[in-house]
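Per-record layout

source: Priestia taiwanensis
name: Phosphate-binding protein
length: 316
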Amino acid sequence: MKKVKFLAMTAIIGSVLVTATGCGSATNGSSKAEQGATQQLQGEVKIDGSTTVRPIMEAVTEEYRSEQPKVKAGIGGAGTGSGIKKLIAGEIDIANASRAMKEEEKKAAAEKKVDVAEYKVAFDGITIITNKENDWVKDLKVEDLKKLWLEDGTTKKWSDINPEWPDREVKFYSPTNSHGTYDYFDEVILEKKELVTKNVSKSDDPNAIVTGVAGDKDAIGFLGYSYYFENKGKLNALTINGVEPNEKTIESGEYKPLSRPLYIYVNKQSLKDRPEVHNYVKFALENAGVLAQDVGYIQLPKADYDKQVQDVEGLK
């Protein structure tokens, strides 16, 4: 976390320097933007949604406190779907999302007259994990994933995929249906068909999936790359169609079809009317790249962040 500490120190030093500049505004003619940079804000930014995006936004909040200590910005982890519902209902300002908004969600927002801004914060790759003692499977094809995870009325065994593999039942670990990680996997692997119903444990907490797979030799699960990255000492990450999930393959899209962008969705009215929300979102997009790298995700090209920051500034 050296980068995080560096950012914090940079923010503090920068704040001191800008404050000194602002103090001389009566004589040096500093702009309103420069004077506004020293403004200490108050209030609360309400954030909920994806547990996959949460580590990035927690890192953002940690850094933001050094700049705006009087602004509260706690991060919930109700899941992408639940977060978007709360955003549409006006209960939160920002919904973290590990998938794009669905058409029905956009329609619901329009019906409630909630104008939503979409911003990308990082890239992620859904990672297929197995137990460290699993020495028989290193790579799976997309078709293998479908055969394992799709409900077909049978009890799934490893030997169903390869007769040389153990004739034992597979134990499945998955996020719940409210999570964007589940939605994305459901769309690109299961093609929106039913997930296995036998020997499956679903959890809202990715760490519970880590624990479950790490404790069961016959387990398989899927979660966001950063949770594997944090626990790679006790998990295997499978290659998919021969491609390993890593920074290079996820950013390039070579790790397909499980590479994906991560989002925050923001109530535009909050951006326009509440300085603390506007300032927080701008700070998040200015720093999300470095912070995403620090917590195990892959940053976007700098030009993408810059363009989004300009969009936020236009909503002030």
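summary: The CA atoms of residues 138 and 267 lie 43 Å apart. The longest strand covers residues 116-125.
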